[in-house]
């Protein structure tokens, strides 16, 4: 059997809308097979995975906590990817945002008041943008591949954070645990509705960022510039859009948003720095960006779905004894199917079976001879 | 003297997986395909190799399983990018993410289990010759495979007609297609070869380097292998040199940690990653050279018209 792609005269609006849903359906089918292979009743597993984790109000708050960093990071990355610039080091920028933002509560715990939080958030964005500026600088100055440099910097950031919390920033009264002091009250991001659940302002930041970036991409010249440079760098150059400026713009923007996600996570959900502060948000956000079709509003929905895969992973681990890595598998499969289904937007797919190839049998036999002749 | 030999041996062991994975990726990229899933295929090879070795008790079956798992996993990438013409960067990334998740899930029951190790070559009388004996005749089997593989790829790419065809596809798939070359078929084979290599590299990690299963044990080696291909400007012998330089950096920082050099261990551990960045910067500074050597259709999807 062979797959043949036939180009559509124009992109299909129908599949453009449907493809995330088809991808989700395929993921569910593949997931059912996986659960069956693990010896679990798929229906039962799906109920535990996708339904139970969001059946109560406080659980919806947990969903918002997980979705906030995913949406914040993915919205920034979507701008990068639209411009055909590949920042895949958001995990590192997330960590540096968390580190920069934590300077105030860790080194100046006596500094209190309503100014603390805004300053921390600002520093977090500066930290993320600073860390993202490294691959941007290397790309523009030396045309070094940004995929590899931004990714390598993730490992460096993880090790740097590890050193900080075990070394100079370790809580002297922490009984030797590798963690900083607990942030003071004025350095903790307030919860939105403390009576109902733990969700904090991070989720609001995520929604605001999504709307702002959506406005920029669809209503402002900058968004147009991003799209032009992404789809045709040559056309962009003729229009006078600078490629190097665009590299910096997208990296700094996505870095700042990842940094904001980092400090919001540490200040809101964790309350101190520790060796590991992210279950791979920076990488999962790549999936969120694609699942959301690189559209900020789509990303909000995709972020909620991917946040659910995290919660579901934890749920099946405690209920069925399956590794919570199952979440990572779901996320990976989802991205695969999304990318595959996106092909349907531009192409019709024709499956050519063996039966159809028979009439061409003579041609096929002649082919090897041709190759010999060459 | 003995210490020097030991250090050289450990450098070879650290360099071997980098070399194998990078050589595989080099062939893939020479055919014009950019597979960023090396890390994912490597970790799948590692878990597959460990699992098969652990369950059967035979490290050789483990090694074979690692190769097969890597190849099968890369087939997923091939179907997506070659038959469905998806974006290669995004698909490669998702292969890595899926591989890291899947290997973690499969490997849950392997954590902490004692693994099997491939025995080192031992030729009576010869392997015990001081220095030379152990360096040349006393290493693990995969080391010899890696060297043979490099030589074979060099010969294949630059001394055979098929190798020439493969390179021409990488430079211009449209011209190659116009000449009647089966672009997609060649690329399928190249990608699966790259996957088998990455799987073998992973198998080396879990059957020789540290014969056990640790989650994320590839620790970015797949990405370093990708960087090595760029560093080598797509030449096999330069990949060999690069892999040994990186092996030396990797081992050097471990020894430095053991000697208690007054630098935090985290800084030493980050050296291989920083070295990768430095090396990439140095090599890409020369734009003309990079432009000249990069396969011209690298990373571009190709849909044959009829």
Structure in words:
The complex is a heterodimer of chains A (about 375) and B (about 300). With about 375 residues, chain A is mainly alpha-helical. Helix content of chain A is about 70%, strand content about 5%. Chain A has one domain (about 40-170, about 180-320): ABC transporter involved in vitamin B12 uptake, BtuC. Chain A contains 16 helices and two strands. Residues about 355-374 of chain A have low confidence and may be disordered. Chain B is an all-alpha fold and about 300 residues long. Chain B has a single domain, classed as ABC transporter involved in vitamin B12 uptake, BtuC. In chain B, helix 1 packs across helix 11. The longest helix of chain B is centred in the first third of the chain and has 29 residues, at about 1-30. The chains are: A mainly alpha (about 375), B mainly alpha (about 300). Chains A and B meet through strand 1, helix 7, helix 12 and helix 14 of A and helix 3, helix 4, helix 10, helix 12 and helix 13 of B.
Protein traits:
heterodimer; A: 374 residues; mainly alpha; ABC transporter involved in vitamin B12 uptake, BtuC; two-stranded antiparallel ribbon; 3% strand; globular; disordered C terminus; B: 306 residues
Strands, helices and their partners?
The complex is a heterodimer of chains A (374) and B (306).
Chain A: E1 2-7, H1 13-37, H2 42-51, H3 57-82, H4 90-101, H5 103-107, H6 116-142, H7 146-166, H8 202-219, H9 221-231, H10 233-238, H11 243-270, H12 281-291, H13 296-320, H14 326-346, E2 347-352, H15 354-357, H16 361-373
Antiparallel strand pairs in A: 1-2
Helix pairs in contact in A: 1-2, 1-14, 2-13, 3-8, 3-9, 3-11, 3-12, 3-13, 4-6, 4-7, 4-11, 4-12, 6-7, 6-11, 8-9, 8-13, 12-13, 12-14, 13-14
Chain B: H1 2-30, H2 38-56, H3 59-83, H4 88-106, H5 132-137, H6 141-159, H7 161-171, H8 173-178, H9 183-209, H10 221-231, H11 236-258, H12 265-269, H13 271-285, H14 287-293
Helix pairs in contact in B: 1-6, 1-9, 1-10, 1-11, 2-3, 2-4, 2-9, 2-10, 3-4, 3-9, 6-7, 10-11, 10-13, 11-13
């Amino acid at each position: 059997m062979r797959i043949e792609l036939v180009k559509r005269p124009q992109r299909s609006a129908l599949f453009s809308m449907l493809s995330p849903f088809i991808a989700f359906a395929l993921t569910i089918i593949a997931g059912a097979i996986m659960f069956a292979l693990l010896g679990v009743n798929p229906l039962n597993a799906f109920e535990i995975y996708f339904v139970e984790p969001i059946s109560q109000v406080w659980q919806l708050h947990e969903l918002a906590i997980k979705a906030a960093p995913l949406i914040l990071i993915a919205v920034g990355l979507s701008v990068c990817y639209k411009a055909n610039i590949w920042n895949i080091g958001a995990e590192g920028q997330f960590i540096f945002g968390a580190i920069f933002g934590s300077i105030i509560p860790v080194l100046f715990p006596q500094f209190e008041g309503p100014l603390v939080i805004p300053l921390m958030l600002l520093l977090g964005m500066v930290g993320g943008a600073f860390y993202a500026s490294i691959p941007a600088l290397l790309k523009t100055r030396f045309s070094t591949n940004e995929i590899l440099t931004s990714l390598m910097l993730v490992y460096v950031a993880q090790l740097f954070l590890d050193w900080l919390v075990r070394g100079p920033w370790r809580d002297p009264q922490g009984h030797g645990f590798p963690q900083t002091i607990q942030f003071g009250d004025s350095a903790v991001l307030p919860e939105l509705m403390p009576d109902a659940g733990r969700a904090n302002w991070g989720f609001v930041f995520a929604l605001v960022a999504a709307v702002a970036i959506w406005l920029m991409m669809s209503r402002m010249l900058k968004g147009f510039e991003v799209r032009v440079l992404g789809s045709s760098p040559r056309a962009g150059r003729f229009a006078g859009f600078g490629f190097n400026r665009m590299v910096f713009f997208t990296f700094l923007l996505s870095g700042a948003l990842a940094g904001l996600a980092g400090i919001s996570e540490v200040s809101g959900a964790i309350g101190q720095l520790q060796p590991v502060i992210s279950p791979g948000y920076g990488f999962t956000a790549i999936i969120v960006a694609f699942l959301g079709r690189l559209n900020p509003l789509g990303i909000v929905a995709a972020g909620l779905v991917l946040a659910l895969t995290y919660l579901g992973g934890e749920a099946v681990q405690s209920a069925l004894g399956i590794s919570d890595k199952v979440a990572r598998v779901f996320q990976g499969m989802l991205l695969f199917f999304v990318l595959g289904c996106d092909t349907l937007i531009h192409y019709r797919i024709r499956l050519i079976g063996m039966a159809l190839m028979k009439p061409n049998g003579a041609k096929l036999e002649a082919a090897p001879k041709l190759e010999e002749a060459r | 003297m003995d210490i020097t030999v030991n250090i050289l041996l450990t450098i070879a062991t650290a360099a071997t997986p980098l070399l194998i994975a990078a050589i595989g990726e080099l062939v893939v990229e020479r055919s014009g395909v950019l597979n960023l899933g090396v890390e994912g295929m490597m970790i799948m090879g590692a878990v597959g190799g460990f699992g098969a070795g652990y369950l059967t008790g035979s490290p050789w079956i483990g090694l074979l399983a690692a190769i097969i798992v890597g190849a099968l996993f890369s087939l997923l990438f091939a179907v997506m990018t070659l038959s469905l013409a998806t974006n290669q960067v995004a698909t490669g990334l998702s292969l890595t993410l899926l591989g890291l998740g899947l290997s973690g899930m499969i490997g849950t029951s392997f954590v902490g289990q004692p693994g099997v190790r491939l025995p080192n070559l031992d030729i009576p009388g010869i392997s015990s010759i001081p220095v030379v004996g152990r360096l040349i005749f006393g290493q693990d089997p995969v080391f010899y495979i890696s060297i043979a593989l490099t030589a074979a790829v060099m010969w294949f790419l630059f001394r055979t007609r098929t190798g020439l065809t493969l390179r021409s596809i990488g430079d211009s798939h449209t011209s190659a297609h116009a000449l009647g070359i089966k672009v997609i078929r060649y690329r399928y084979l190249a990608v699966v070869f790259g996957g088998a290599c990455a799987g073998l590299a992973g198998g080396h990690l879990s059957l020789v380097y540290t014969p056990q299963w640790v989650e994320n044990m590839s620790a970015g080696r797949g990405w370093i292998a990708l960087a090595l291909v760029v560093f080598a400007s797509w030449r096999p012998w330069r990949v060999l040199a690069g892999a040994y330089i990186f092996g030396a950096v990797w081992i050097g920082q471990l020894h430095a940690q053991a000697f208690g050099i007054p630098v935090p261990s985290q800084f030493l551990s980050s050296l291989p990653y920083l070295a990768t960045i430095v090396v990439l910067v140095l090599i890409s500074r020369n734009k003309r050279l990079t432009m000249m050597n990069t396969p011209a259709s690298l990373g571009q999807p190709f849909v044959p018209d009829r």
